[in-house]
Specification:
This protein is of the alpha/beta class and about 700 residues long. It has 24 helices and 26 strands. It starts with 6 loop residues before the first strand and ends with a strand. Iron/sulfur cluster (SF4) binds near residues 12, 18, 175 and 176.
Length: about 700
């Protein structure tokens, strides 16, 4: 076999940047990776996590055979058990007594089949995903403003903007290649300004002209204040508002009532008025303004309103979907966007269609020939596990994720799973907090073995190609789902033999609407042959007969997907975090570190990735540390919800007094740290259902002096 035959183009499985990877395989082993020069997201670059991918594909710790109640069994026996028990529970208690919980790590084809089985054939919409925890507020905000969950911008805008505002986004660590693109653009264009809005001074601030360390959770006030400022300084695009928008007067009235002037807004945000005015002046004067937002906005009990407050300012200035000018939501996981496309959220139908629209229900029912299409939205992540706890959901099938670790109030989720009648877990890893609670374990393939598509933050669909054979008896998630569907009596609708068939069906459904509205549309890809699918180059949706090469930006000339065709500005009543801190508490912010991913099942295999940060820590302002007698390097404990988390104290003036930061990755598989998400209160945004993972009240104490 020559060198060319051993190298395959695929996509990185970590963050939502979706970088192209060239993977070199020799003797059935992945021996090296490099950035794909032809992939538009990264043009040959990889961050440190991506460049260590070949160090993480060993089989240690893999789940290799199906297990029922701890015993290895055959696939037939495991699948019969899953299908039989799901069928019995549905017959006895109805379709809403069962649920699927999916992951932004699985492929679009896996998501499509899971969603079709649950919503179309079982007849429940109880199919949600861990992407609920990362970007569902941005989805809800886009839907409210644009009439569709559509990101207007593309990565090239980072290079074209004159002002880039990063809000609640530590891109240097969470989206490193985008940060590098921004850093390079800034070098080339000295006039470009970069501003970071974040309570914490992060690595991203190294690039910034200004860092505004606003009060945790006060972003909604800041953007309401900006809307007032733009109106007062005649910096609005009146023509655009008149032609393309609705709701402007109501949005401005709400903003003005809360934030009538800079002094009031500055006080609400805990910022010097001069800093705020500097930002407002720049935004008002800069046509090419790009606002990137991420978990710091989304993971909030008012995340949807915050995202709409950002979008309001862009709509009021006509800066949506234009080169270098847009609001731009960055997704956390590699396929959070792909999951949304196929209805992987409990409140959506496939292809961005809605339960509330009878035409959409008809379209999906007809297209799938679905015998019992769910008619109403299902349970969102936090509510879904509450229903498990209450015994209303009696069987849950968890695919490729670890909710007993990552959901807020994780200890309660664990207790709920312990009590649940049937817990099925498909995973590539044998031992996680969640697999320990499973009645039935199904070995699944992982990156390097999977074959399908993912969609990144700029709507770009890319192929993830299999490089290695599955170990043991591992199977693809879509195959496992089809096998269960067949045993439940739905075989005809799930007779796929290759992911290309699933993708073609997904693409065809995106163009199959009764009412003509096609926000998510890739119907031009519905006729791909298997060879064309295998060779599919990265492409941004929509991909239709009118735009067969894909679409870089959306809404540049108006034409929104609302019934009126106009974008909606929303009146936003900004509010502080839902759970106020008591006198003895501090505000805990959770997040990623640069070189780790989720619960570290893959990244902890690479010694060099552990070098950057090899133990859990708690970042504390000096003032809060000295009040509690804490010195740098001491072991400290955080308490909340009768749970605790232990980490090494890092005293930093990058924290605001009263605020803490702790990384989300560690659990007791690695140390006795405990799980930081167990401390997060399960309060959610009322629109999106996204939990408030950034502002949880906790107590802090020293455990052991250094
Ligand atoms: Fe992978 Fe994200 Fe790094 Fe790109 S930036 S190589 S997608 S982790």
């Amino acid at each position: 076999m020559n060198r060319t035959e051993c190298t395959t183009s695929t996509t990185c499985p970590y963050c939502g940047v979706g970088c192209g990877v060239e993977a070199k395989v020799e003797q059935r082993e992945l021996i090296a990776v490099s950035g794909d020069r032809h992939h538009p997201a990264n043009a040959g670059r990889l961050c440190v996590k991506g460049s260590a991918l070949h160090e993480t594909t060993g089989h240690e710790g893999r789940l290799l055979r199906p297990r029922v109640k701890g015993r290895d069994v055959s696939w037939d026996s495991a699948l019969d058990e899953v299908a039989g028990r799901f069928t019995r529970l549905i017959e006895e208690h109805g379709p809403d007594s069962v649920a699927f919980y999916l992951s932004g790590q699985i492929l679009t084809e896996d998501y499509y089949v899971a969603n079709k089985l649950m919503k179309g054939f079982i007849g429940s919409a109880n199919v949600d995903t861990n992407s609920r925890l990362c970007m569902s507020s941005a989805v809800a905000a886009q839907k409210r403003a644009f009439g569709s969950d559509s990101v207007p911008a593309c990565y090239e805008d980072l290079e074209l903007a004159d002002l880039v505002v990063l809000v609640g986004s530590n891109a240097a660590w969470a989206h490193p290649i985008l940060y590098q693109r921004l850093a390079r653009a800034r070098e080339r264009r000295p006039g470009m300004k970069v501003v970071v809005l974040d309570p914490r001074r992060t690595a991203t601030c190294d690039l910034a002209d200004r860092h505004l360390a606003l009060k945790p959770g006060s972003d909604g006030y800041l953007f309401n204040g900006l809307l007032t400022y733009l109106a007062d300084r005649n910096a609005l695009d009146q023509t655009y508002i008149e032609r393309h928008c609705e709701g402007f007067d109501e949005a401005l009235a709400a903003a003005r009532e809360q934030c009538p002037d800079i002094a009031t807004t500055a006080a609400l945000c805990g910022l010097p008025a001069a800093e705020l005015e500097w930002l407002y002046q720049r935004f008002a004067a800069t046509e090419r303004s790009l606002t990137l937002y991420s978990q710091g906005i989304n993971q909030s009990s008012s995340g949807t309103d915050k995202a709409n407050a950002i979008i309001n300012c862009h709509l009021a200035t006509g800066r949506v979907g234009k080169p270098g000018a847009s609001p731009f939501s960055l997704t956390g996981q590699p396929n959070a966007m792909g999951g949304r496309e196929v209805g992987g959220l409990a409140n959506q139908l496939a292809a961005h269609m809605d339960f509330a629209n009878p035409d959409h229900l008809d379209a999906v029912r007809t297209f799938w020939q679905a015998p019992r299409l769910a008619q109403n939205e299902g349970l969102k992540a936090v509510d879904l596990f509450r229903a498990v706890e209450a015994g209303d959901v009696k069987a849950v099938w968890i695919i490729g994720t670890n909710p007993a670790f990552s959901l807020p109030d994780a200890a309660r989720v664990r207790r709920a799973l312990e009590r649940c009648e049937l817990v099925v877990v498909s995973d590539c890893v044998a031992d996680t907090d969640t697999t320990r609670l499973a009645d039935i374990l199904l070995p699944a393939t992982t990156w390097a073995e999977k074959n399908g598509t993912v969609t990144n933050s700029e709507r770009r669909i890319s192929r993830q190609r299999s490089l290695l054979p599955p170990p043991g008896e591992a199977r693809h998630d879509w195959q496992i789902l089809c096998d269960v569907a067949t045993r439940m009596g739905f075989g005809e609708a799930f007779a796929y033999r290759h992911p290309a068939e699933i993708f073609r069906e997904h693409a065809a459904l995106s163009g199959f609407r009764n009412n003509g509205s096609r926000d998510f549309d890739i119907s031009a890809l519905a006729q791909l042959s298997q060879a064309q699918y295998d060779a599919l180059a990265p492409i941004q949706w929509p991909v239709t007969d009118r735009c067969p090469e894909g679409t870089a930006r959306l809404f540049g000339d108006g034409g929104f997907y609302t019934p009126s065709g106009r974008a909606r500005l929303l009146p936003v009543w900004a509010r502080p975090p839902a759970t106020p801190c008591r006198m003895d508490e501090l505000v805990l912010n959770t997040g990623r570190v640069r070189d780790q991913w989720h619960s570290m099942t893959r990244t902890a295999r690479s010694p060099r990735l552990l070098e950057h940060c090899d133990e859990p820590y708690v970042e504390i302002h000096a003032q809060d540390a000295s009040r509690r007698g804490i010195a740098n390097g001491d072991l400290v404990r955080l308490h909340a919800r009768e749970q605790s988390y232990i980490g090494r104290a890092r005293i930093s003036d990058g924290q605001r007094p009263g605020s803490l930061f702790a990384p989300m990755h560690w659990n007791d598989r690695y140390t006795a740290a405990g799980c930081v998400d167990a401390l997060v209160a399960p309060v959610t945004d009322p629109v999106s259902g996204q939990p408030e993972s950034k502002q949880s009240p906790v107590r802090l104490e020293v455990v052991e002096q250094h």
